[in-house]
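Here is the promised in-class demo. Please do not try to memorize the tokens; focus on the logic of going from shape to residues.
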């Protein structure tokens, strides 16, 4: 059976009672390839002031005078994602793709992602019905300070790139924690976390703390 391939994604959306309306989605594969799509069917009139100022007005695809997004249909976005995941993921011996999806505070992102395909049971064969949450993993590892993101926050593709960076950072932390635990099996989790602090100083340039 083939190894799972990690995809890091983020969505921007408009949230209002009973639904979540996709604005844009960005996905980055573990191999570095990228996908970005804007929902041209999004009803931007339902956006609140925060979404308008922090998301829409920063998007070159947004025509603020017409109140419209220049982009794809939902069906086109779905097909683009299917092709992208298939190209980067391939199939196992049973003809199933084996992607692994990661996001940060993933709950709403995962819902709006799954809705692109209809019901949960309509997700492609071999795809998981759950998303792995970077924030939960961060909490499990002692809630360390994460790499800075900069001014590009709330751009779906830039956020997806940051999610990949966060996974890499947390994976390094986990590996180092495991190494210390193996070397010092009598130490508590808190002592292990404290012992890691100096080690991660050397990663500060890459991760921009």
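The designed amino acids, position by position:
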């Amino acid at each position: 059976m083939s190894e799972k391939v990690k995809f890091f994604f983020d969505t921007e959306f408009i949230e209002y009672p009973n639904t979540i309306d996709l604005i844009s989605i960005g996905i980055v594969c573990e191999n570095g390839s990228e996908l970005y799509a804007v929902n041209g069917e999004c009803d931007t009139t339902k956006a609140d002031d925060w979404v308008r100022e922090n998301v829409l007005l920063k998007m070159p695809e947004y025509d603020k005078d017409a109140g419209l997004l220049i982009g794809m249909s939902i069906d086109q976005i779905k097909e683009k994602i299917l092709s992208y995941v298939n190209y980067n993921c391939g199939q196992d011996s049973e003809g199933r793709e084996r992607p692994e999806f990661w996001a940060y505070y993933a709950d709403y992102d995962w819902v709006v992602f799954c809705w692109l395909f209809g019901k949960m049971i309509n997700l492609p064969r071999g795809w998981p019905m759950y998303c792995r949450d970077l924030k939960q993993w961060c909490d499990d590892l002692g809630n360390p300070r994460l790499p800075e993101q900069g001014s590009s926050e709330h751009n779906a593709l830039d956020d997806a790139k940051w999610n990949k960076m966060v996974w890499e950072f947390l994976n390094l932390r986990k590996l180092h924690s495991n190494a210390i635990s193996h070397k010092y099996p009598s130490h508590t989790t808190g002592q292990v976390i404290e012992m890691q602090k100096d080690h991660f100083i050397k990663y500060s340039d890459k991760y921009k703390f």
